[in-house]
Design brief:
The structure is a single chain. Helices cover 32% and strands 22% of the residues. The protein has helices spanning 5-15, 33-48, 93-108, 135-141, 159-165, 196-200, 238-253, 291-311, 331-343, 389-407; strands at residues 52-55, 61-65, 74-80, 117-122, 183-191, 204-210, 212-221, 225-226, 260-262, 266-269, 275-276, 279-288, 315-323, 327-328, 350-353, 368-373. Strands 1, 2, 3, 4, 5, 6, 14, 15 and 16 form a 9-stranded mixed beta sheet that branches. Strands 7, 9, 10, 12 and 13 form a 5-stranded antiparallel beta sheet that branches. A two-stranded antiparallel ribbon has the order 8-11. It starts with a helix and ends with a helix. With 408 residues, it is an alpha+beta fold. Helix 1 (5-15) packs across helix 10 and helix 3 (93-108) packs across helix 10 (389-407). The chain has 2 domains: 5-211 and 326-407, Zn peptidases (Aminopeptidase), CATH 3.40.630; 212-323, Alpha-Beta Plaits (2-Layer Sandwich). The longest helix is centred in the last third of the chain and has 21 residues, at 291-311.
Length: 408
């Protein structure tokens, strides 16, 4: 194993002290004192690994190891160090610290690469503070717009104002953007946040693609009425209608291998115990790594719902909240990762990512690849989030072998 597993493990726990909560979890939002402390420590690690270090206009921390040909496009290794409230210590930081470990191990072994390697700690992937995630990766990809910086946190502070408080200049955000010809590939190590690898008995796996979320809000308008005085065959019960649609959503989604559907919120009006619900609203989070499959599911459930509501003389309104394109991982990078696994006598396991990651922002920018590390019980965004030291070491080793092949 080329990487220093013990060093990686030690740094994970050292970094977790910034924003540490009594529960053992971490709360580390972007543009806060806790994040600043974490960024400073990450910069120290990067310097120890022999990288030149800078912070770009968005607040991303970037460490660079030159190659023998510095005109060649760089291979980027990235993830984030911000967290959700009471989050775990692995989600995000493992990818950043593993990237630093890859570069440090190369330096210690006197490995010379042709292509430069850059390790990036992206600002605000989670979106926990402002409800608008992947700020840093959007900025680097050139898709972060000035109007995005007007998103506010619960105290009414905009992203732009928070940046200014951190000695950044929001009017210069375009300076963080990179030209695609300067980047050869983007790779990331992350915990799985699911149980696929655990059930397969494998320490790590190769991601086939990142599912794109489609968020919609559905409102069914029926007719409120007396619960006791309205016969069943005369009702326009919006909740019963919504439940039929939700059942169809589940049945339709199950027809597709990688699709998932979640009804995260549901509410009824007027909300009385003895009143037939006149209006029901629910949200749908629909995801798949294949945009065509996701669109087919969307079309099927929309057609079914509209037809059903028309038959019952009820109104339906569907509001789109967010539509993000899925991001398939590069077949070429997946092949490199498979070769890396075989070199390490590991059985290659392929799996999709249902959760979003910074790499999604580079889908039209450069080839992307991801390695997942096994998660205990599939728990994430929780103080109980856990991956073993050995599994983290295996994942980092796959990352090392992959970057070695991409840069030499």
């Amino acid at each position: 194993m080329a990487i220093n597993q013990a060093r990686l493990w030690s740094r994970l726990h050292e970094l977790s002290q910034f924003g540490k909560q009594a529960s053992g979890g971490v709360t580390r939002f972007s543009f806060t004192k806790e994040e600043r402390q974490a960024k400073d420590l990450v910069m120290t690690y990067m310097k120890e690994a022999g990288m030149t270090v800078r912070e770009d206009a968005a607040g991303n921390v970037i460490g660079r190891k030159d190659g023998s040909d510095n005109t060649a496009p760089a291979v980027l290794i990235g993830s984030h160090i911000d967290s959700v409230p009471e989050g775990g210590i692995f989600d995000g930081p493992l990818g950043v610290l593993a990237g630093i470990e890859v570069v440090q191990a190369m330096s210690e072994a006197a490995v010379e690469t042709v292509h430069p390697v850059e390790v990036i700690a992206f600002i605000d992937e989670e979106g926990s503070r402002f409800g608008f995630g992947m700020i840093g990766s959007r900025a680097l990809a050139g898709t972060l717009l000035p109007e995005h910086l007007q998103q506010t946190d619960q105290n009414g502070i905009t992203i732009a104002a928070a940046m200014q408080e951190s000695d950044l200049h929001p009017d210069e955000i375009n300076k963080a953007a990179r030209y695609s010809e300067t980047v050869k590939a983007y790779v990331e190590l992350h915990i799985e946040q699911g149980k696929v690898l655990e059930r397969a008995g494998q320490p790590a796996g190769i991601v086939t693609g990142i599912a794109g979320p489609l968020w919609t809000r559905w409102t069914i308008e029926g007719e409120a009425g007396h619960a006791g005085a309205t016969p069943m065959n005369q009702r326009k019960d919006s909740l019963m209608m919504a439940l039929q649609i939700i059942q169809f959503i589940e049945e339709e989604t199950k027809k597709y291998t990688n699709a998932v559907a979640t009804i995260g919120q549901i509410s009824v009006k007027p909300g009385g115990v003895n009143v037939i619900p006149g209006e029901t609203t629910f949200t749908l989070d629909l995801r798949d790594i294949e945009e065509r499959d996701r669109d087919q599911i969307e079309e099927a459930i929309t057609s079914y719902a509209q037809s059903l509501c028309a038959d019952r003389e009820m109104n339906i309104k569907i509001e789109e909240l967010q539509r993000v394109a899925p991001a398939p991982c590069s077949k070429e990078i997946r092949a490199v990762m498979e070769e890396a696994c075989l070199t390490m006598s590991l059985e290659p396991v392929f799996l999709p990512s249902g959760a979003g990651h910074d790499g999604m922002q580079f889908n039209d920018f450069c080839p992307i690849g991801m390695v997942f590390v096994r998660s205990k019980n599939g728990i994430s965004h929780n103080p109980s989030e856990w991956s073993s030291e050995e599994d983290c070491g295996v994942g980092a080793s796959i990352l090392y072998e992959t970057v070695l092949r991409l840069t030499t």
